[in-house]
């Protein structure tokens, strides 16, 4: 696949500075890096963003995630490789990523389960990671950024 245009982050480098600051804050929110990687990967899978899935897997492995678990993220409900906290984060990720699919996508039950495992600061980090991932997914799929591309 050939990209439709230069990645917007390259054309508007000041935007990248803001995103980098948000990422820094996310990683200071007290959520394990592997959980944040799972959140990123699952949102990217849902959105069909090849570059973000590719990059997400590489980053997750770099942060100590096992290939076995990475292969199962797409089917996290059907396997026993994830902790209850990770399951809550993945459920929140799916609901927040699919908000257009149904009204009230982030149900009280999904929220309560996540809140049971994460403090408010941690929830903020997860929500910001979901939002940033969805932003990058939309940029990459719109511009047809090829998977494995570096910019």
Shape estimate: globular
| Total DSSP helices | 8
The number of E-state strands comes to 0
Largest sheet at a glance?
A: none
Structural class: mainly alpha
- For the CA atoms, what is the radius of gyration? 15 Å
Order of helices and strands: HHHHHHHH
**What is the oligomeric state here?**
single chain
The share of residues in extended strands comes to: under 5%
Low-confidence stretches: none
In whole angstroms, how far apart are the ends? 16 Å
- What is the residue-averaged pLDDT? 94
Determine the fraction of residues in helical runs and give it as a percent range.
55-70%
SSE topology:
Layout: H1 8-11, H2 13-27, H3 33-47, H4 50-62, H5 67-72, H6 84-97, H7 108-117, H8 120-143
Helix pairs in contact: 2-8, 3-4, 3-6, 3-8, 6-7, 6-8
């Amino acid at each position: 696949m050939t990209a439709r245009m230069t990645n917007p982050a390259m054309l508007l480098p000041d935007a990248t500075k803001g995103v980098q600051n948000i990422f820094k804050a996310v990683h200071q929110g007290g959520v394990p890096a592997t959980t944040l990687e799972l959140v990123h990967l699952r949102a990217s899978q849902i959105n069909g963003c090849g570059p973000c899935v590719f990059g997400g897997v590489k980053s997750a492995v770099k942060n100590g995630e096992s290939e076995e678990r990475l292969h199962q993220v797409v089917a996290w409900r059907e396997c026993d490789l994830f902790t209850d906290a990770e399951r809550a984060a993945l459920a929140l990720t799916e609901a927040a990523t699919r908000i257009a699919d149904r009204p009230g996508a982030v149900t009280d039950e999904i929220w309560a389960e996540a809140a049971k495992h994460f403090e408010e600061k941690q929830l903020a980090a997860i929500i910001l990671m979901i939002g940033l991932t969805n932003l990058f997914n939309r940029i990459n799929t719109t511009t047809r950024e090829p998977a494995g591309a570096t910019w």
